[in-house]
């Protein structure tokens, strides 16, 4: 899985929480007031006939009676408005991105369509005739169509599951295009293009190892079953409402006080505004270190900067991607549970302020005020109301 997104969060991994990352926010994102937030959902295969070449397009028009359809700078209602299209206007689509879930007049959809003239519109308000095609994914600057490259093999194997032990369904010839719906984390394969544990799920059914696929440019694909990206909440209480249920799930499973989990999510995701949180539902900056390790559904690389004793520097790192907020909260609880250094904190699972000081003392964060910051947030927003008794 590849991405050029920018994250802003605290880093941790390998049992240590070492450095705080400092990077600029994603360009073009603005809070525009209350919006519908979707924290659950799945990626479904797109219906319709496949488009074999970028030039072959189905007819598409805006279906937004009574109001113009906004054109945005990116795939969410939080991106800057750059134009509008009247109801019935014809649109020419270049490619699609996986973005904010929208309930529109035509369908409920997490896909946003990049127009050939620039900007994005929600697929939820676009009517296709005769039917919706398999639209190409967007790369950084243009559409990108994946191509099979099996090397010396007679064809690229399509498997029933994302590993080489799966039943072979068919073969795809060298140079054929693929209609990829999403990616699944499976068996690591050393292929003709790269070594990768990502497998591409095809609209026609089955999986092919991404290690044997050429992408002309790097799209940001959804992991199969992953909820759509979120937008920054309009208010602090909206964010707290979003994460309180998942934090309580984590408390039931791992005994981490929900109030502490919520306060940490506020600090480490910037109230849900970091790219890592919006795109991959990672609220705590947990790194992959080669594997999503069970609860996460995959790994994604982000450009970021990290700061240590010798100053700050630009780098790239791989972070865990989650199905939704619940996955992130559960993995956070498990992270604290499986690392022995945090064991003393669990004496205080019903004393959240002492729990916060204990994990800080054990080395969770390098900031000397980290525990005080958590406690101040817990008190200000009365987060102990979410702790289970």
TrEMBL record:
It comes from the Bacteria. Residues 230-387 form the Mannosyl-glycoprotein endo-beta-N-acetylglucosamidase-like domain. Residues 8-22 have a biased composition (Basic residues). The keyword Lyase does not apply. Coiled coil: none annotated. Pfam families: Glucosaminidase. Keywords: Cell projection, Cilium, Flagellum, Hydrolase. Residues 1-24 are annotated as: Disordered. NCBIfam families: sporang_Gsm (NF038016). This is Flagellar protein FlgJ.
């Amino acid at each position: 899985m590849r991405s050029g997104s920018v994250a802003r969060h605290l880093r941790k991994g390998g049992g240590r929480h070492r450095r705080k990352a400092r990077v600029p926010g994603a360009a073009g994102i603005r809070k525009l007031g209350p919006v519908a937030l979707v924290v659950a959902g799945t990626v479904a295969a797109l219906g319709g006939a496949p488009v074999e070449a970028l030039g072959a397009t189905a007819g598409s028009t805006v279906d937004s009676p009574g109001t113009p359809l906004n054109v945005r700078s990116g795939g969410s209602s939080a991106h800057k408005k750059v134009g509008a299209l009247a109801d019935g206007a014809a649109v020419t689509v270049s490619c699609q991105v996986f973005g904010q879930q929208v309930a529109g007049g035509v369908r409920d959809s997490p896909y946003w369509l990049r127009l050939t003239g620039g900007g994005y519109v929600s697929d939820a308000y676009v009517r296709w005739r005769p039917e919706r095609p398999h639209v190409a994914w967007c790369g950084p600057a243009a559409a990108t169509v994946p191509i099979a490259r099996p090397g010396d093999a007679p064809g690229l194997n399509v498997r029933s599951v994302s590993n080489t032990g799966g039943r072979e369904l068919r073969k795809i010839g060298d140079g054929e295009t693929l209609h990829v719906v999403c990616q699944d984390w499976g068996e690591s394969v050393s292929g003709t293009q790269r070594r990768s544990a990502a497998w591409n799920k095809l609209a026609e059914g089955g999986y092919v190892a991404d290690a044997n696929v050429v992408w002309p440019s790097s799209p940001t694909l959804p992991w199969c079953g992953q909820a759509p990206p979120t937008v920054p909440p309009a208010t602090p209480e909206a964010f707290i409402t979003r994460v309180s249920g998942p934090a309580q799930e984590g408390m039931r499973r791992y005994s981490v006080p929900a109030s502490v989990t919520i306060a940490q999510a506020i600090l480490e995701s910037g109230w849900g505004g970091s790219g890592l949180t919006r795109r991959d539902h990672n609220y705590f900056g947990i790194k992959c270190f080669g594997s999503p390790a069970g609860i996460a559904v995959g790994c994604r690389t982000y450009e970021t900067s990290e700061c240590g004793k010798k100053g700050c520097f630009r780098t790239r790192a791989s972070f865990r991607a989650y199905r939704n907020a619940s996955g992130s909260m559960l993995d956070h609880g498990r992270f604290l549970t499986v690392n022995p250094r945090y064991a003393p904190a669990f004496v205080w699972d019903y004393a959240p302020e002492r729990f916060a000081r204990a994990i800080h003392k054990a080395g969770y964060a390098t900031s000397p005020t980290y525990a005080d910051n958590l406690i101040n947030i817990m008190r200000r927003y009365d987060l102990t109301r979410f702790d289970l008794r």
